[in-house]
Each structure stands twice: as structure tokens, then as C-alpha cells.
Amino acid sequence: MTTVRPVRGAAVVPESVSTAASLLDPSFLRLIDGLQESVWLVCARSHTVVAVNTASRALLGLEARDLIGTQIESLATTPEDALFWMDAAIGRREPLHSDTMMRHADGRMLWVSRRISHVPQPQGHGLWLVAMRDQTQQRHHDEERETLLAELRATLESTADGILVTDLAGRIRSFNQRLASLWGLPEDLLNERNDDAVQAWMRRSVVDGQAYAVRLTAIQESPLLHTSDNIKLIDGRVLERVSLPQWSRGRPIGRVYSFRDLSEKLAAHQRIEELSHNDMLTGLPNRRALLERVDYAQAMARREASPFALLNVDLDRFKQINDTLGHSYGDRVIKEVALRLKESLREVDTVARLDGDEFALLIHQADARGAEHAARRVQEAMSRPFSFDTLSFTVTCSIGIALFPGDGASADDLLASAERAMHWVKESGRSAFRFHQPRKDVDLLSRMRLDHAMRRALQEHEFRLHFQPQIAVESGALIGAEALIRWRDPHRGDVPPSEFIPVAEESGFIVAIGQWVLHQAVAQAADWLKKGLRVPIAVNVSALQFQQPQFVDTVAQALRAAQLPPELLELELTESVLLRDADEALHRMQALSELGLQLAIDDFGTGYSSLGYLKRFPIQRLKVDRSFVKGLPGDASDKGIVNAIVQMGRALNLQVIAEGVETDAQLAFLGECGCHEYQGFLCAPALDPRAFEQRFKPDPVVGTTPAHDDAAGPVDGAKAEGVKPASPVRLVRGA
């Protein structure tokens, strides 16, 4: 670094400064004073500054008097300067041209470009001309430019895209390492910067090199063109190429290409597309793909006037496989079923998995006969035993068939028709096939409307409860009442339970209805109890309602809310409740029994109950279904069935009640065979709460003694005192 140190006065040298200066040609001094560069003239013998021009004063902020007479070694103290002036002192005259730093008078450091050359003189040892130019600002600009270039390079190298910059002639001006990586460019090509070799390599890397070259030429011949296209490489990868013109000062100067690897993205899209159209477990087309193929089959069928069939195949009792063997075995069965279904059809046909254990078959150019043949081939394929590891078992299926165009005008309609036909097979016993019957569609629409109306009716408080008396056969005393739901719709009028209860059970709305009935019946029994009318209330419970996890808690809460003694509530369960899961049913029935309420089996004799079940369950009453009572006493079969039920109930120490009793003859027969109780029109129909209360007011003399002693158990044939009609029950018929 050169440091300026002002030195006043003449230097102690053999030849004075004034003498050296006097030797200078005035014209020469005027010449250097006109130069824009800073110039010092240094005596070659004494190494002192003998003259400076005006520009040198501005460079360092020093006046001429501060410089003239100063020893040059004190002004230039860098190692380079010291070596140069040492060589000059021994007579060397080689010039020096280099960049160095000097300190301004205010302390700032300046970058200067400095040239030192020898100027011979006619007399003496000559002069050294030191010319300096301030490069500080230029240095700052260069540093800023280098910083920007470094940032640009870092940006290019940081992007995930390969970048290639060319001029208008297509010559490569810049690129990043990502480009080299995407195209697999060799290191030697990168170092050579051979444009033709690089372009040739890229052309050889694509599947269609000729098309690539033609397209590249077209892009280069259109400087303002914006392009985007995909390039498929020989190794299978796909690159997206985006080309944009490069602008400078309002005119195109080149082109920028960006390359992005789309392979993973395209593979992901392809996988998503496959998943959206194919089942993950079996690889078969899914519902979406099937509907698209059915739409295509419809278009072909309309053009060629040829029908086709759609089969819905559902495995029978597949849930047992999952529950017994586990879902891993269930998945293996599904895969095997898919394979068998494919093998049973032609290659032109389609097998699709709709959901779970439900499949669909699209049979092209098939009428009813062709559809039947396909269904039989499927049944034959499924009849073969399934063998996994050491297990061997059989899986059957139910098949519904829909034909185009008769069973639906759209893919959704056809699929729905086939599914309905499959469900009819399920209801009829499974393991068969059936064609769709269009007349059922009206019934389904009606059931949908009825289901909607029921839900609205519960919100609008259109349901109400009636109560049918339950009477002791021998004494005629009131021993209880069965709560029966009634519904008057504003548009339909009175809707019988036989019409809306099956729909509620099918849709699951029976749970909400059952809870409403339970709470209303318990509340009514509690209200009557406060008025002195102690009537045990029987409430029907559906199988679905009974299976709800919180059912026992719901019953307990209803009793607590109404403050009703639990012995005044009886729950009537159907035999289907007992058969679904005997152990779970036993657990819940024991929990209910521990609450203190009564349990009865409703419609006994219509299901498949066994004596083993009856012995295990905490049941207090059997209810003979009205279908067996209707034929009494003339029908011998009904007589035998009713008598057997009564005797079995008595043997198990259970109360037996018959429903649907309408004639004296029926009541007489029940009395003869030992039936304990009955209900039906012979006594009274189901009555609204007020009518029931008026009919069975407590006897003011006897008081509110219950019809039977709940603590001691049901009355068995003995005359019960307490609440009873004012006259024999048979006299109130029709009231």
C-alpha cells in the first residue's frame, strides 16, 4: 500500500530539487498538466518528486508543495514499490504497471491503477514518470457486479429446474448444474464449452431426436415465441421444457430455457388415476371405472341395437369370515373371488369391485339368456371350496341381474336395478340369482317418502301412544297394558304401524322411534301411578334398538327421569334379538333384569327359539303371536301350537299371554289350556291415555292395590283383587 506523507522543504540529495526541475522542458510540463491522470515526475537519481500535475492534487487531496521534494520511497511503501525503487537505484529501467492502494489526505483508502516508466533526459539521469488513475469507484462497481453475478449464479444453482441461456444465434451463454444433471452431460463437455457437442448430446438423449431438432430450430427462429412442451428421454424420464425470450432495453437478446423433471409428477398422477379407477386390493376396476364402461356400453348398444347385462354379485355371510378368521383371511378370499369371477367371463367383459364383498359384472352383447349363462358360470366358479393353509370352506353368492335398456336408461339406474334384484335374492334365502323386476320401483319410492315423513312426524310431535289392556284370563282383572304407537299424518291420515314400522326398521329410524316410545310410556305410567292407577306398561323393543351400546343406560335414565318403579315396566323382545348374539343378549338382559324391570318374549312361536335359550335368559313372560290365536278354536294346528306354548311356559314357570283375542270361544279355549293372560278386541282396542284412564279408574273401595303382587311374582290362576272392570271383561267389548 502506498502511503502519502507530506514532506516540506528540499530533500537532502546530491542534486537539489530546483536543479532537477530546472532541467525540465516547459512544454513537457504543460503536456503532463493537461493530462486527466495524476502524474508525478521523479528524479531518477535522487528519487524525489520534482513536478506534479493538477490532477494529482485532486487524487490525494494534497497541494503541489506537499508533494514536490518528497522522497518517492516515503510516498510508495508497498513491498512491490520498495523492490521497484531498489532496482531503479542500481540502474534498472523496466517499467511497472499494476494496481495498488493509496491513502487520501482525509484518511480514505483509494484504489489506483499505476504506471511507472522511465523518461530519458538529454542531461542527467533522466526522470521517472508515475501516472495514476483513480479506480476506487470502478472497483466498487466491479464488486457490486461480482456480487450480483454471484447471487444470480447461486439463484440459478438453487432452483430445482435446469436453466439454459442462449443468444439469438443459439449459442450457449450460461447454464446451471441442474441442467447438466437432468441431461446427464459429461464433465468434459461442460469444461470445453462446446455448444455443438452439448446440443448433439441433448439431441441423442431424447426418444425422437429428429423431432427435437426441428422443434428447437423453430423456437430459435422465432425470438419472441413463448413455448412449453414435454420431452421424453430415452431413459424413460419426461422433461418439461419452457422457453421464454430474454429481453434487454426493450429488445430480445436471447432465450432462456427451463427444464423440469416431470417423471415423479406424472407417475403420481398415473397412480392417482389408477387408484381413482381401480380397487387397491384386487386391482379390478372400481365403481367409477365401471360406470364409465357402462356409459360406453350404452352408446355402443344404441348404435348397434344390441343389449347388455349388468350383474351385481354379493358374497353371502362374508362378515362371518372376517369375524371368525380375521380381515387378512377376508382379503385373501376377496382376491380369490376376483380371480374366479374374471376366469368365469370373457375377456371383453368387465369385473369390478364395488365395495367390500360386492362385485359387478358387465356382460357385453348379452340378453336374458346370456346373462343367465353368465350367472350360472359365476355360481359354478364359486361352488368350488376355498382352501387357505389348513382351512377349507365354501363361499356362496347372491346375484342380481339388470338388462339394458329395459332396466335402466343410465349407468346408475342399471346398477341400482341390479343391486335391488340382488337384495331380493338375499331376502329369499341367498345363493341364487334373480332378474330385476321393475314393478318394485314404485314401492321403493313410496318407502323413501314414508321414511322422510316419519322423521318429520317425530319432530312435529305427530306420534302418540295408545294402550291396550292386558287382562287375567280367570279373574278378568287388569294386570297391565301394552304401549302401541299411533301416527296421524296431515296428508295420509292414520298410518297403521304395520306400514311404517318395517320401513323404520329397514332405515334404522326405529331406534329413534323406540326411544320416544320408551320415554313416553314410562312417563305415562308414572302419571297414572300418581293418580292412583298402578298399571305395568309393556313396551316393544326392536332388535336394532336392543343392540345399541347405551340401551341399558337409556332405560335406566328413563325410569329415573319419570321416578317410575322399575317393576312397572316390561320390555317385549322379539326372538330375533336372542338369536343374533346369544351371549351378548344374555349379558344385556341380565343388566336389565338387575334394574328390576320385567322381560317378555314377543310373538313367541314365529321364530326359532329353543328351550336352551328360554332356560338361560331372565324372562318372565311368553307372548303367543296373534297368528296362532286367530284360528282358535277351530284350527287343529293352531290349537296344538298354542297348547304346546302354554304348557312349555308353565313348565318353565313363565307367564303366558295371548294377543289378538277377539271372541269368547278363543278366550274359553285359552282358559281351558291354562293360558294366564290375554289382550285383544274382546276386552278393548288400544285406547288413548284419557280413555284408558276413564275405563280403568281405581275402585274407591278397594283403593289402589295392584292387580298382582310384584314382589311375589305374577298371578297364576288365582282371582286378583284390585283394579278391574266394573263388570266382566267380555261385556266391555267394542267400547
Automatic annotation (TrEMBL):
Domain GGDEF residues, every copy: 306-438
Gene3D superfamilies with a match to the protein in the record: 3.30.70.270, EAL domain, PAS domain
Lineage: Bacteria, Pseudomonadati, Pseudomonadota, Betaproteobacteria, Burkholderiales
Domain PAS: 24-81, 148-194
Organism: Roseateles terrae
Domain EAL: 447-700
Signal peptide: none
Entry protein name: Diguanylate cyclase (GGDEF)-like protein/PAS domain S-box-containing protein
Pfam families, per the entry: EAL (PF00563), GGDEF (PF00990), PAS_8 (PF13188), PAS_9 (PF13426)
Superkingdom assignment: Bacteria
Cross-referenced InterPro entries: Biofilm_reg_signaling (IPR052155), EAL_dom (IPR001633), EAL_sf (IPR035919), GGDEF_dom (IPR000160), Nucleotide_cyclase (IPR029787), PAS (IPR000014), PAS-like_dom_sf (IPR035965), Rev_trsase/Diguanyl_cyclase (IPR043128)
Disordered as annotated region, ranges: 700-727
